[in-house]
Amino acid sequence: MTYCVAMRLDAGLLFASDSRTNAGVDHIATFRKMNVFEVPGERLITLLSAGNLATTQSVVSLLRQRLAHKGVPEGEHLFNRASMYDVAELVGRTVKETVARDANAQTLGQGVDFGGNFLVGGQIRGEEPRLFHVYAQGNFIEAGQDTPYFQIGESKYGKPIIDRVVRHDTSLKEAAKCTLISFDSTIRSNLSVGLPIDMLLYRTDSFAPAAPHRITADDPYFLKLSRGWGEGLRRTFARLPDEDWFR
Amino acid sequence: MTYCVAMRLDAGLLFASDSRTNAGVDHIATFRKMNVFEVPGERLITLLSAGNLATTQSVVSLLRQRLAHKGVPEGEHLFNRASMYDVAELVGRTVKETVARDANAQTLGQGVDFGGNFLVGGQIRGEEPRLFHVYAQGNFIEAGQDTPYFQIGESKYGKPIIDRVVRHDTSLKEAAKCTLISFDSTIRSNLSVGLPIDMLLYRTDSFAPAAPHRITADDPYFLKLSRGWGEGLRRTFARLPDEDWFR
């Protein structure tokens, strides 16, 4: 499985993904699920992916190789789409193209799910930062002020903490801490989500080169956060009032 | 959907269930999912149920009416089984009996899931308290010291907090608080789980009459707990260290 979170906050964008993939419990591997496409100063586009790894890798490979239109006429690609809406549409179309190629009459009865989900966010100069969830069917929804975040993959374990903390006006710093705690909770409860975590913070209108961080199992900050959070929970617990009928 | 939790701690047993049922989002109703069977001083058996409401209600009705063997020879029932293991086996057999009766060739193609899951726990004099998870297939597993709790239904949202707090030697009081917070988190993140919550605490070897508590939306303690927990989380957050690259 997979766990990915993306947020569109007033302060900017946040992307985070785990890196465990599995086909059954005896076929586990590590793959980066975050892909960044950027033209410094002009646009930054980040894709997080969940679902069938063959599908999601193909979508990313097709998007990437179409940026370099060697010897072929230039088609639509991530760097010539005018808006993030058009980028999301292009990703959705590439998902449909890949699934249409790979899934056919022979595979229908084999119980393989060829679907892949993407979180597509970024900023193109002239627009605000935007964030989309592209479904396995290729259609998509956009995050707004009321719901500033999307999750894909094993989303349930880590949802309550985000629901409690994150609003559109949450700072990137707070959102990053909350996201890491959401990952910590998910990793503790579900074997199919695992470290390292890739995280990218993007400040609105900065158009700075993307500097994703990779958080490994021995990352001292993540360990400190995980321990601090656990201790804080226990402290909070100890302070909560008891009820008369708790005998 | 549904959310139920049961724990087998050194101090005793804990049972909690929500009471929302739904068939689609436009058919929502309130049903008690906790059923207690007791012979004060001799045995206490509690069933929590999730899954197809017709199946789970039928199982409980059959178990209940077989206690009163009016005019028919006494068969196996909840009050004459010698151990909690035998009780779990009887519940599993009744699940299979109900599904075999209701699911047939005609219903096969209709996409109806007739399955029902039960958490079955209690104490029979001469035994320690025991807790079982009876699957929709009628087979079952027992909780132990390493994994002292089971969940059924919408279990993922509320699992991390239990994983962090509950061990076999956790007190009933702490476990009850943790369980209510687990429900609060689940209810905030998933519409298909709703108040009121039914909760029953049973102290090992007490064989006292069961006194389940119903926690409604305006329960002052639950509101206090929910608010206190939210505030505690935010306080814990504020204290957690920042990382250099959170810019």
From TrEMBL, chains A, B:
Keywords annotated in UniProt: Hydrolase, Protease, Proteasome
Domain of life assignment: Bacteria
One family name in Pfam for this protein: Proteasome
GO biological process terms on file: proteolysis involved in protein catabolic process
UniProt cross-references to CDD domains, sorted A to Z: proteasome_beta_bacterial
Transmembrane segments: none
Keyword Hydrolase recorded: yes
GO CC annotation: proteasome core complex
Signal peptide: none
GO molecular function: peptidase activity
Protein's name in the database: Putative proteasome-type protease
Taxon lineage: Bacteria, Pseudomonadati, Pseudomonadota, Betaproteobacteria, Burkholderiales
